Known about the structure:
Elements (H helix, E strand, L loop, with lengths): L1 H19 L5 H8 L3 H24 L5 H17 L5 H10 L13 H6 L1 H25 L2
Amino acid sequence: MWQLSLLFIISIMWTIASAVYPHKSEKLKAQERNANQLQLYAVRMMHYFTFALSLLFPWIFPPSYDGWFLAYTVILWIHWELLKMECILSLWEKQILDPTYQLGDTPYSNPFIDLFGRDIGRFLVYITFFNLGFVLLRYFLAHK
Length: 144
């Protein structure tokens, strides 16, 4: 079962990547031309994978995996707090795009979300929070 779920996440990741690429801003395209392409690609693929996992987790994994998702979410929050409200993958992406970037310079700027456009990116973040609420409810109802 988990192998099919992983395959599904990877296919969604590639679909998102191919849909997003043509919509990049000229500023982002210019930054990317000067960046290490392999590093940028690797970081974005990791970001696509973790984002797709957050979006699709409750719908493709059975409730027995809810504890893992909740632990994953807690680890995400802790690392954001430790990194001045920046995701480690966004920090790496910013440093690849601009080698002079320092942790905390622009914590709420996110090149990965900018690939989607702010409105779509915000909507995807809302879906992630909805999924977290759904998993929390499902987890506590199953363990009461």
